[in-house]
Design brief:
Blueprint: E1 8-12, E2 19-28, E3 37-41, E4 47-50, E5 56-59, H1 90-101, H2 106-113, H3 117-125, H4 132-141, H5 146-150, E6 167-171, H6 174-181, E7 185-192, E8 198-208, E9 211-216, E10 229-238, E11 243-256, H7 259-268, E12 281-285, E13 289-297
Antiparallel strand pairs: 1-2, 1-5, 2-3, 3-4, 6-13, 7-8, 7-10, 8-9, 9-12, 10-11, 11-12, 11-13
Helix pairs in contact: 1-3, 2-3, 2-4
Length: 304
């Protein structure tokens, strides 16, 4: 018997062929894919070490066939095309991004989700279809939802969920506002556009030496922020829990022109602007006023 991570272990009645139990193989103990296996059972969500008996067989993920490997496929030398090159699917990419965003190692994430680090590596690096139980376990480990890891609702604006029964709107102190703002990502800058009309534009931003900085190009709407007092807002919405927070920074915006400072900002940037193209004009907003709000259930504290 040979199995790959993500394959399905099926236990059938010897006389009737009826499936008595099945589960996802989430851990291997031998490089050649031979038993025993760590299996997450679909009926209980329990993970156990299994030495399959004669009434068990493996359904391979890529073929959904029985326990008859094509060729000599092993964990270290797979023959299936889908396993020969790292080409993660959408779920794997989202799991990896959530894990990195929260500063978690694969080992810690796997421990929280009760799966092996090898299986987590497989999920992140190969097209895969983890069981609902495994997806829920990963969502819990990453403090997100299974729907988010699947990509459900990516084109839907946040905030369409039901309001909390007893919400509490809490003011955030300066320290908490700075902590939430300091995670680089996407925020919105409110400016007066070159045509004189108000505009709110999303930008990729960083926080450097307590200043909010973002890249744009000359003549663009975000570039119009320079020379004025502007508002910059960043937020997070947990759609499943109907909770969230927002931070608003207000202060003067200037264009960074000193060559060494520009080079330092480019070196320290975590990502390129999503809008693409040549965007080498840096705008800095130094907050003079920083405020924030958080929505939580009434029986929870302001900070989670």
């Amino acid at each position: 018997m040979h199995a790959h991570l993500g394959d399905r272990l099926v236990v059938e009645s010897p006389s009737t062929g009826v499936v008595r139990r099945d589960g996802e193989i989430i851990g291997l103990h031998h490089e050649d894919g031979t038993p025993p296996y760590d299996v997450r059972w679909s009926d209980t969500d329990d993970v156990t070490l299994v030495f399959p008996g004669p009434d068990a067989h493996v359904q391979h993920l890529e073929t959904e066939a029985d326990d008859t490997p094509s060729g000599t496929g092993t964990v270290g030398d797979d023959t299936a095309a889908s396993r020969t090159s790292a080409n993660p699917g959408d779920i794997g990419r989202r799991v990896a991004e959530e894990r990195r965003r929260r500063g978690l190692s694969r080992e810690e994430t796997a421990r929280r989700a009760r799966i092996s680090p090898q299986y987590l590596a497989y999920l992140e690096e190969q097209p895969s279809d983890p069981s609902t139980a495994t997806l829920l376990a990963l969502a819990g480990a990453l403090d997100t939802t299974a729907g988010s890891l699947r990509g459900g609702g990516v084109d839907r604006p946040p905030g369409q969920g039901h309001a909390l029964l007893h919400p509490r709107l809490n003011d955030l102190d300066q320290e908490e506002c700075r902590r939430l703002l300091s995670t680089h990502g996407v925020g919105r800058v409110a400016v007066t556009a070159p045509d004189g009309r108000p505009a709110v534009v999303p930008v990729n931003y960083e926080v450097v030496d307590d200043a909010i900085v973002f890249r744009t190009r000359p003549g663009s709407v975000p570039a119009a922020a320079a020379g004025d007092e502007v508002a910059f807002e960043v937020d997070h919405v947990d759609e499943a829990m109907s909770q969230g927070w927002s931070v608003l920074a207000v202060g003067p915006a200037t264009t960074v022109t000193e060559p060494d400072a520009v080079r330092d900002l480019a070196r320290r940037a975590h990502t390129e602007p999503w809008a693409g193209g040549t965007r080498d004009t840096w705008v800095s907003v130094r907050p003079t006023r920083l405020t924030g709000k958080r929505i939580t259930p009434a029986d929870q504290s302001a900070r989670r």
